[in-house]
Amino acid sequence: MLSALTPRESTEFLIDKARTRARGTGDNLSIAVVKLEPLLEQTATVRKIEIPSIHSIKAGKA
User: Fold this and answer.
1) How much is the pLDDT for 1?
2) Total-model pTM
3) What is the pLDDT of residues 44-60, one digit of tens each?
4) Who contacts 33 (Cβ-Cβ below 8 Å, separation ≥6)?
């Protein structure tokens, strides 16, 4: 539902809902409005790193 509203409308809706639930005694609400966008696809080189096991470390083989 909130995704159909603008950030301002969403914030006002949530504040109003909090005040209604608080029955006029405040809103006790913190809001952060964050815009999420998809990441751009990037080509990256991935390098495999061998991590020694705890057994080989204890045996002095690492």
Assistant:
1) 55
2) 0.48
3) 677 888 888 888 888 88
4) 7, 10, 11
Q: How far apart are the first and last CA of the chain?
A: 55
Decide if 31 contacts 9 (C-beta within 8 A). no
Name the residue type at position 34.
V
The answer to whether 31 and 15 have CB atoms below 8 angstroms apart is yes
Q: Reduce the secondary structure of the chain to three states and give it as a string.
A: CHHHCCHHHHHHHHHHHHHHHCCCCCCCCCCCCCCCCCCCCCCCCCCCCCCCCHHHHHCCCC
